[in-house]
Predict the 3D structure of the following.
Amino acid sequence: MTRRSDGPASDGPASGGPASDGTAANGPEPSGPALRLTVLVGEGDRWHHRPLYSEIVHRARDAGLAGASVFRGIEGFGASSLVHTARLLSLSEDLPVAVVVVDTEERVRAFLPRLDGLVAGGLVVLDRCEVVRPAGRGRDAEHERGAGE
């Protein structure tokens, strides 16, 4: 992932993203045990004329979750067993899409009712995981970098 600069377009406290001190707008970044929510849908799935994956991302943001990412697959199949692939132009319109959210178990489980009625033909998966803050992030790492220069 690439981190954007702390300019006006960056994720900061006003946008609900990480602040410049390494904390999220709603509190410290999660570290330790977490829950990963993955919602698997088709790229062509819609909710009120909007891509379904976009609706899920906006609902996650409105719920104050730590973040959400959308990943577009290059090939896959679902319950219909019809393979969708980027290699065939005629089928490339409905490629698989995964929306991934990672936050505390409590916050992810509280978000699940907001998916009710949205994901009719998709799949919702929960996995326990562990969040590890990479070296070089947050106020302590900035202080350490500044001390050595």
